[in-house]
Amino acid sequence: MIEIEQSGALNTVQDLGRFNFRHMGVSVSGAMDALALRAGNLLLGNDENAAALEVQLFPFRMRFLQDSSIAVTGADCRPTLDGTPLPPWWGCGVRAGQLLELRYPRSGARGYVCVAGGIDVPLVLGSRSTALRGGFGGVDGRPLQRGDRLALGESRVPPLPVSGIGIEPPDSALQSWFPRNNAGEIQLRAIPSGEYPLFAADAARFWQQSWQVSNQSNRTGYRLAGDPIFPSESVEMRSYGLIPGIVQVPPGGEPIIQLSDANTAGGYPKIAGVIEQDLWRLGQVLPGQSIQLIQSDAREAIAIEQEVARWLNRLRLSCQPLRKALTV
Description:
It is a single chain. With 328 residues, this protein is α+β, with helices and mostly antiparallel strands. The protein is built from 5 helices and 21 strands. The protein has helices at residues 34-44, 170-173, 203-208, 276-282, 298-327, and strands spanning 2-6, 12-14, 52-55, 60-64, 68-76, 80-81, 84-85, 90-94, 99-102, 107-115, 149-150, 165-166, 186-192, 211-213, 221-225, 240-241, 246-248, 256-258, 265-266, 270-274, 290-295. A 7-stranded mixed β-barrel has the order 13-20-17-18-15-14-21. A 6-stranded antiparallel beta sheet has the order 7-6-9-4-1-11, with no helix packed on it.
């Protein structure tokens, strides 16, 4: 069991999400950086979908009420264990009574604390993710708060050594696959979508300019601020189904990228869809930072997905000798 000693209004329990219920108006939810969650769980020997803590407001403090193992991934939140600094993307054994603290990140927006066995909150519609707008999942559908005590699932693998073990972060290990422009801004690949031809006159500016993530952004969607783009004609559209990654353009001309808590339906023209393997990178962008969207296609999206799968498989294989050594 763990106890929350300090938290913020948007820190929650998340797994990979709640699928197959969008037809009922239920958002997917789940971790904004799914790759960080999967990697942390793999290091611990958990199921990749095990629930963890998503931290985006700092400082965050939690105390362990039993011996266990942890993996801290995602943003470089300058973690400390009983005041001793831990490297980013790090896993280690912990003892009952120890205190873990995450501080304002050096880089990135969201940190993930995975614990051996996963966070054991009730399954709701097949997921432990917190749906804040719906008020269900996680811990009674609300953010974490001081005094919360969370049970841990059963772990079937030996604990990690106290000395710890690290993971090479994906943006480093796969640097050539996850580019930045000359200004250091993250480049997100997107595929033109249904109403893209309507924006023909402004399409070049959509791809070429930098877009700043507005302060009016959250887990539902990131609103982008920049030189507005407009369709060549007004069209009346029926609402259509939405998924994370869809880029809509409301009447004001500043795009919105739907994210983990995306609406399940909408009617604004959609100009593009950010490829799935770039969404974790967007989840680590803070409001006020800028991004660039670059045109992609299905073939490139599949190639990137395959490369990420190979990186995860290398992580699985690298953990196996460690587990064998700990069992001996």
